[in-house]
Design brief:
- This protein is mainly alpha-helical and about 260 residues long.
- It has one domain.
- It is built from 7 helices and 4 strands.
- It has a two-stranded antiparallel sheet with strand order 1-2. Strands 3-4 form a two-stranded antiparallel ribbon.
- The N and C termini lie far apart (about 50 Å).
Length: about 260
C-alpha cells in the first residue's frame, strides 16, 4: 500500500510594521558617549603603542594598515561611524528568581583591535582546529566595552526603563571602572561574527612566522585572496565566505557574506 504524499506544512507567521524616525539615523560612536579629551588620550596611547611595535618589526604591513584605518575611524568626531552596538533581549542570562521577569541589555564592540588565531591541529581533517580568539588582549577593547556599559547604565536610568526596572542584577550596580572591566573580562562572549582568517589584501602584505618576533601576535596575518577572491598563487581556487573580510565591520555580517557569494 502506497503512503499518501505529505502536502501539509505549518509555520509561524508574522507581519512587520516599519516606522520612519525623525531626523537622521542614530549611531553611537565613542565620541557620543565619552568626552573627546578621553578619546584623544586613548588615541595617543594607541599611536605610541603602534610605533613601538613597528620599530621592533612585530607588526605585519597588513596589520599596520588595519590599525591605521581603525584609528581614522576612532578620530571621527561627527559620530557617524558607530563603534558600539546595543542589544536588548527579552530575557535575562541569570534568573535567580524563576517567578520574576527579566530582560538584558548588551554592548558589543564593533571594531575590536585584538587579533586571534586559528590553525590546523592535525593531519586528520575531521579534527577540530586550534582556535585562540585572544579576546580583550588589546586594552582598548575593554575600554570600549566599559564605555558601552556606562551608556547602558544611563539608559537604564532613563524613562521608560525606570518605569519597569526594579533592580540591576548582573553586574551589581555602582561599580568602579576597574570593577566593571574585571566583570567584562570574566563574562564577555563572542557575537559569532568571525572573519579575517583569509584576508583579502595584497599578497606581499604580511610576513612569515620565522621572520617576525612572536611577542604580540602569535600568528601570521597577510593577504590570502585578491579582489577577484582568488587565492594568491593558485590557478583558480577562490574563497567566498566571511574569512576574506580583512577587518571587522560595524554590521552583522550575513548580508555582506551574501554579497561576497554573489561576486563569485
Amino acid at each position: 500500500m502506497e503512503s499518501p504524499p505529505i502536502s501539509e506544512i505549518e509555520a509561524f507567521v508574522s507581519t512587520p510594521f516599519d516606522y520612519i524616525i525623525i531626523g537622521q539615523r542614530w549611531n553611537w560612536g565613542l565620541n557620543n558617549i565619552l568626552n573627546h579629551s578621553i578619546i584623544s588620550t586613548k588615541i595617543d596611547e594607541i599611536e605610541a603603542e603602534i610605533a613601538v611595535r613597528k620599530s621592533t618589526g612585530v607588526l605585519t604591513e597588513l596589520v599596520m594598515q588595519q590599525y591605521t584605518i581603525q584609528l581614522d575611524w576612532l578620530k571621527n568626531k561627527e559620530g557617524t561611524l558607530p563603534h558600539l552596538e546595543f542589544l536588548l533581549f527579552t530575557q535575562g542570562l541569570v534568573k535567580s528568581n524563576p517567578k520574576a521577569c527579566y530582560f538584558m541589555m548588551a554592548a558589543g564592540a564593533q571594531h575590536p583591535r585584538s587579533r586571534g588565531s586559528v590553525h590546523i591541529s592535525s593531519a586528520d581533517p575531521v579534527q577540530e582546529p586550534a582556535i585562540n580568539p585572544r579576546y580583550l588582549t588589546e586594552e582598548f577593547d575593554a575600554f570600549s566595552l566599559l564605555a558601552g556599559y556606562r551608556a547602558i547604565e544611563k539608559l537604564s536610568q532613563t524613562p521608560p526603563f525606570t518605569d519597569i526596572i526594579e533592580e540591576q542584577i548582573m553586574p551589581a550596580a555602582k561599580l568602579s571602572d576597574d570593577e566593571v572591566i574585571q566583570y567584562i573580562r570574566q563574562t564577555c562572549i563572542s557575537g559569532s561574527h568571525y572573519m579575517g582568517t583569509a584576508a583579502m589584501a595584497h599578497r606581499e602584505l604580511g610576513g612569515t612566522q620565522s621572520s617576525r618576533p612572536q611577542i604580540y601576535f602569535p600568528y601570521v596575518l597577510s593577504g590570502v585572496v585578491g579582489s577577484n577572491l582568488k587565492v594568491h598563487g593558485t590557478a583558480n581556487l577562490r574563497v567566498a565566505d566571511a574569512s576574506i573580510i580583512p577587518l571587522p565591520i560595524a554590521a552583522h555580517i550575513q548580508a555582506t557574506v551574501y554579497a561576497i557569494g554573489e561576486k563569485v
